[in-house]
Amino acid sequence: MDVYLVRHGIAVPHHATGYEEDSKRPLTDKGRAKMRDIARGLKVLGVCPRMILTSPYVRARQTAEILQDVLGSVERLVLTENLLPLAHPDHLWKELQAYSELEVVALVGHEPNISALANLLLGVSGLPIVFKKGGVCHLTLDMSGTEPRAQLRWLLTPKQMIAIGQKG
Could you tell me if 162 and 34 are in contact, meaning their C-beta atoms sit under 8 angstroms apart? Predict the structure, then answer.
């Protein structure tokens, strides 16, 4: 299974007036525009997930909806609490096993969960993976065992993704 880990785009600052509840913070106008450019970069790279699993938080859901709109390949967008900022990555691994028939999946979440998930899938711990907002990591995940075994294909910053999208 090809797995694309995506950190949500730039959102309204934490504790901003009117958005005191973290789960309700939306993407900013700049965040939406940058995520659209990042999604174009993914499209140029040929990324075509059939399903996106996303945190139910507004900023992650909006990021997933932008990916769904730009990529055009997504049949299902599934909200999961297993991608919340403090969710345990083991739970997401178990959820992914239920979708083992899929060849390509995108996961949209938050830090620190998304880095912890990358560590779990790669079978390491403490690897300091930096996911900037809108950053994307591509893993190839072997779904045949009971423990996750993934290979890192690439990890790109938002700036790199936007540059790829502009070439396409």
Answer: yes
Q: What's the pLDDT at 167?
A: 85
Residue 119 exposed, middle or buried by CB count within 10 Å (0-12, 13-18, 19+): middle
What pLDDT, on a 0 to 100 scale, did the predictor assign at position 168? 75
Q: Does the pLDDT of residue 135 top 80, yes or no? A: yes
Query: Cα 72 to the chain's mean position, in Å?
Result: 16
**What does the pLDDT read at residue 79?**
98
Amino acid making up residue 70: V
What are the distances in angstroms from CA 87 to CA 36, 58, 84, 90?
27, 16, 5, 9
In order, the DSSP letters of 116-140 are HHHHHHHT-SS------TT-EEEEE
Instruction: Specify the residue for token string 């769904």.
Output: 68
Query: Euclidean distance between the first and final Cα of the chain, in Å?
Result: 25
Please report the DSSP string for 39-78 in residue order.
Answer: HHHHHHTT---SEEEE-SSHHHHHHHHHHHHHH----EEE
